[in-house]
Batch of 4 targets.
Target 1
Amino acid sequence: MPGFADRMSKLGVEGAFIVLARAKELERQGKKIIHCEIGQPDFDTPAHIKEAAKKALDEGFTGYTPSAGIMELREAIAEYVSKTRGIDVTPDQVVVTVGAKIGIFSALMAFVNPGEEVIIPMPAYPSYESVTEFVGGVVKPVVLKEEREFSPSGEEIAKAVTDRTKVIVINTPSNPTGGVYKRKDLEAIVEVAKEHDLWIISDEIYEDIIFDGKKHESILSIPGAEERAVMLSGFSKTYAMTGWRLGYVVAPKEVADKITKIQLNTVSCPVSFVQKAGIAALKGPRDEIEAMVREYEERRDLLYREINRIPGFSMIKPAATFYAFPNVKELGVKSKELANMLLEEAGVALLPGTDFGAPGEGYLRLSFATSKENLMEAMERIRAFVEEKFPNVS
Ligand SMILES: Cc1ncc(COP(=O)(O)O)c(C=O)c1O
């Protein structure tokens, strides 16, 4: 067989999909597995959003659209982002994408030359590291610390800058930590980026899943960020639309044009009728969305209480997202080994923190996008397992 391009060895895989495959295999063998590995809402897409897609199909809206998306949706996104960030975004700054993930890929493709460095606060969503390396860039991790509630330190980001640094990638609210970046830390990041003339890629896909009555802080609302930040978000998490593959990028117009060019050369355009569903999502009622967030918050409270009762486990309260990120260092085993044992022996599928980079050692990630009953059962199984295997840990 002829060889592959060298860059293929740089592309990683997502741990969640590997654990899911193993969990399914165990289920085929007759074992009952509790799924806490996948970051996918366990709710259905609200009916009015589905109706908009059905109507578009019935009306024959099935052809290609402009590469950057239909103007009506770009306008709706510009309006939404302007309102939620307190800034003035125009539709020509918006590119509709096929899921948010491709926005990360396109932005890194557009910015990073081989050998240039990308600063990533970690543990982080695996695609930032994987794609940076794929395009020939070099990852410079900055460790997110539990004692800072997983908000990055501006000082440490400044220290990571060299004359090869090109981009800082941030993610708030954050997968896997469930933390949100503090405003003063976002301000420090903008200062560093301005001083060293860097791009910022800001992944804000969890912007609506925030608890305790708090509001999302976006880097776009910090003066000076707008001219160097690419913000990406989407519909997968907020509107329970993972399978629809709809996201967007908001960037300075010159950057939006480059990302559109990548899109033109890859997917041509986002899916036509799905874009109509996006308009319905942004403009429609929000009561179902709010109910989902309330449910996630109740599950967060349940997990916070129960996890802290398990010997050797401790956790600060996740401020957002649907991820719990308990510290398991007291147990004295590697996260990966512990996650494997919990799957094979206790029937709970979850992820080691190291699936999100080396700084995730000593942590596990549990998704609470599953029912309270399942979560309670997962907690009971984990507790029984730990009490048996680690009798000396209190
Ligand atoms: C931080 C983060 N960014 C992006 C994505 C991808 O979102 P999408 O389904 O819209 O591609 C995910 C999905 O898990 C995520 O956790």
Target 2
Amino acid sequence: MTTILRIDASARDTGSVSRGLGDTLERRLVAATPDARVVRRDLVAAPLPHIAQETIAGYYTPADQMTDALRRATALSDELIDELMAADVVIVTVPMYNFSIPSALKAWIDQIVRIGRTFSYDGSGFTGLVGGKKVYVVAAYGAAGYAPGEPFAAADFLTPYLRFLFGFLGMTDVTVFPVEATTAAPEVVAANRERAEQAIAGALAAA
Ligand SMILES: Cc1cc2nc3c(=O)[nH]c(=O)nc-3n(C[C@H](O)[C@H](O)[C@H](O)COP(=O)(O)O)c2cc1C
């Protein structure tokens, strides 16, 4: 059994480029993996709460000192981490909002980045504890020019951030499918989507 965890973050359901390309990616992955099971986390249809005082207290409380209140406050984090750990493949579909990720995705990240569970610290360095996964990121940008070396590269706090974050947790096998200029004229959008679809097909054929 191959478990695919799909995480969607666009506030748009209809017309979302990242979700649309995520559908293509998911379809191709499932077709290539007959025993695939897809687990979905739609962070907009079912928004996650932000972490709070008690959640953070629970993160830093040793297991043998946890109270019922702290266990309740970290129960969702436990569930999301278990879900991530159980996945073989992770698909994240994400739009750029204000040069970074949507807050819906940040809420998920704050629930799953947790000392002693998904990373450790030994006093001198950090170790990621979430290894052995393939991660695909479909990233939709309204403007263009975010690729390395291009004029807007320094403004891309989406893809470099997610690469760093996943790497920090031990997920270093990350493939990103960017699609830019999604707010341009329809023919430009169609051409860019087509290019991204081809990149997805090519990456999966080579995998
Ligand atoms: C609140 C908001 C903020 C946005 N900020 C940016 C931005 O900083 N840079 C950019 O290139 N596009 C920006 N966009 C455009 C989106 O990245 C673009 O429309 C993208 O296709 C959205 O993803 P979706 O099609 O999956 O919904 C923004 C869109 C919204 C709604």
Target 3
Amino acid sequence: MPQDAIELTAPDISRFARGTHGIPYAHSFDSGKPGPHVMVNALTHGNEICGAIALDKIFSLGLRPKQGRMTLAFVNVGAYRRFDPAKPHASRFVDEDFNRVWVESRLDGSEQTAELKRARELRPVFDQVDFLLDIHSMGTRSTALTIVHGLEKERKLALKVGVPPWIVAGQGHIQGKRLIEYTPFNDRSNAKTAILVECGQHWEANAARVALDTALRFLGVTGAIDDETVMKHVHEKAPEPQKMVDVSGGYTAKTSEFRFVKEFIGLEHFTKAGSPIATDGGETVTTPHDDCYLIMPNHRAKKGDRALRFGRPSA
Ligand SMILES: [Zn+2]
């Protein structure tokens, strides 16, 4: 199967444009009973359509929270509108990566990009929610994984959700801040918790199943919907136990001649430090330590792009 085969169809989400509380494509339902505010995000990246398919399905099931409040949002709709199966990589964002703008100085500043505008629109919601699931997908056919920044509350929530099979904890040397690292979430002194799920390769059919299962189980463990509803609609009824890996570092391509030595898909394991994994210009890139996992290899990395993260089993 070619890495970029398009097995999923981007759903028409225009009927969600109005939103429920004045923010386009954000729908919030209040149970009228006390309980947490839980939120599921799709399309933080415009070409990661599995999340849009999952939310579309959740809307079609007519799910409403049994306690607290539930919000479902399609985030970077401006980018998603440009999704073209003939050029599927082109619609990740409009002006910049929505998942790097979560720094107060930029959110509060006067800079105008399509993504900052949308971030400012949604920020009041993120400021209110207690639990957030941000749905993504990957460039390679890696097994699905949950990404957490690394706080204990995040690890616990990811384990409680129970899917997908891998959890990756750590920052991974990126510039800017991801939504899950936005200050109110990245705070040990409160219970607000955000996790991110990478459901598989962007356009593989299974990514939509992983997105739906993860979203339903997340809504279940955060108390928004009951277990019976979760079990009725998830594809995987008995998921395997999860494994957790801590990010130990990252590698940024130094040249545009960065090439992996093999078609790695992610979560390959290397017992010994110094195992060759890529070449970068004239240099050989090797694993930095024993017992090392490769996480989310980026086969399209150009000079200055993050090419992969390394990880080790969590203690
Ligand atoms: Zn993404």
Target 4
Amino acid sequence: MPTPIEREAAALKRFGDRYETWGGDASRLIDLETRGADVGANGYTTMAQADDLADVLRLRPGVRLLDIGAGLGWPSLYLAEKTGCAVVVTDLPPGTVRGAARRANEPPLSERYSFAVASADRLPFRTASFDAIVHTDTL
Ligand SMILES: C[S@@+](CC[C@H](N)C(=O)[O-])C[C@H]1O[C@@H](n2cnc3c(N)ncnc32)[C@H](O)[C@@H]1O
């Protein structure tokens, strides 16, 4: 009989594995139909809302953005491409972070991305490491 900790670890793995295979034809089609672009989203944040984030947070080259619970990197990978800011993409299951890294792994964009497996309640960063933070549809 698995312990609660083993059950939680198994759930985390299942969740991450699902994200790693996300991005197939169906999910790309949904992105294209609902947002007009293939952005790897798994939430309700629209392109217009992501564009608002870029304006409100004054994202531009030199700005360091943290995305918490990024899934496959929506909206931070899009924001980095659009504004030239640097991004650290974080999520809890390793599979999600691997999936985001795969999406971003095209130079020269990959030079402005880094990735960390991290829980929102215990982030492994020093104070003032970032200029801006986003978290969309992250509970
Ligand atoms: C609905 S998805 C949204 C993903 C992405 N931000 C988007 O809009 O497409 C919620 C994400 O929050 C992450 N998450 C849940 N609890 C978390 C926690 N404690 N720390 C970090 N990420 C967490 C999940 O793993 C999942 O990737």
